[in-house]
């Protein structure tokens, strides 16, 4: 497994890594760990519903050890994935029986090297999946040990409770392990007293997590431009089953973003062809669901271990099945936990059907499949190169079939950051062809046209944005920049509106304070920055800016104090 992921050490930070690694102020000091539990992810980026303080805690360790050297971060993610595979092995030992350690090894090794997991392992921001799996597998193992009784049963159960909590705080999907444990209690025919005990523990645990989420600072994400009607969700669910099955059995084409809807493609012909493919995929998904029901019924009669593993996979899969609204329809890393239990069920079937003395078709099928799966390290090795840097990641994702509006918008933003507004404009035009109502594409278009000094076109693109919820700060700041560039209107009022619309986002406040200082209002910049720090004193960058402004105001003593405060909040800052 380590060999499969070794090339990741040459990769940089891509996509959401810029927000969660390079721009998150809460990972830069151990002193800020409590503050990290009071904020959702993407503190200074687009709003989100992701409350994952354990993931942020792991990033704090990475920053202390490696700074912003990406190799260390990648190898830490690989190490967590390896630990999760070991935890799965020990879980399967108790699930299948310790005498079947060969099959537990086979299932855990197959899961560890499957290339579908590269988006959870190679991608630093995807670490939430390995963390949730590591703690979830450990929790189930410890809880099973507690069922055996003995001197250390209470200690094992206490450890299980802590691991269950860590799994839920690593990623929302970690909640599935609570349901899986209740399933195990039913499988083991646990007494009613034990059921009531665990139900009470889970009630307290979930209440605590809910309280943390409810009191944490959160910026709601913008509402989706398109929603899926409830009557269409079963159709998407059937397509997702077919898509995921293909990824598990033959992971030939992998990419970060996948879509099983019939959204517009590059040309009308491509749109029509995609619609036909989705119709066939729906039929295939229905057949596969029927096959899954047959497998469940067979396992119920013939193999309790396999039946329990299949139900565990189902519990972990239901949240990503498209029966509920998510920010995508299919994502490879969402299979990280369900695939472990699915492989466990397959291993049980292999145990039952594999024989040496006579030929058995089912044993031959299961053995062949596992052999094919064990040939996946080469695919995992090859997949690492797709995450080399931001441009490589975006271009390879598009080339592999992920030619979505969001990918084109990201590529347009990259072109802008590298000083190519004309190339960025072309990417935004393609994105609007995919999704004509995309506010982000129109906002990017306006930004590119502003860089090209095409003010009328920039205003037209800005008007297409309307008053998009969640983007008030972006729109206000852009209006200020556009008015200043075209009419030399003071941008400060617009920058103030942007800062007021995003009170937790340092980017908009930094733009305001810098603009005040640049326009000769240094005292106002210092006063307002101090007011900002009174509410958010955890940002090292804010203290550094204050030190810079105080130095410009000939207050070296106060500037030194501000630098010292910044050092307290960033372990990587020099002492002076």
Global Rg: 26 Å
User: Which H/E pattern describes the elements?
Assistant: HHHHHHHHHHHHHHHHHHHHHHHHHHHH
**Fraction of residues in helix:** 55-70%
Mean pLDDT, rounded to whole units?
Answer: 87
**Which structural class do the helices and strands define?**
mainly alpha
The figure for the number of domains is: 3
Strand content: under 5%
Based on DSSP secondary structure assignment, what is the total number of beta strands? 0
Count of discrete alpha- or pi-helical segments spanning 4 or more residues: 28
What does the model show?
The chain has 576 residues and is mainly alpha-helical. It has 28 helices and no strands. It has helices at 2-5, 17-22, 33-36, 53-66, 70-96, 101-113, 118-121, 128-147, 153-170, 176-187, 192-215, 233-249, 268-302, 304-317, 338-353, 361-373, 377-383, 390-399, 405-417, 421-434, 439-451, 455-465, 472-487, 492-501, 506-518, 522-535, 540-552, 556-568. Helix 12 crosses helix 13 (268-302) and helix 21 packs antiparallel against helix 22 (455-465). The longest helix has 35 residues, at 268-302. The two termini are 43 Å apart.
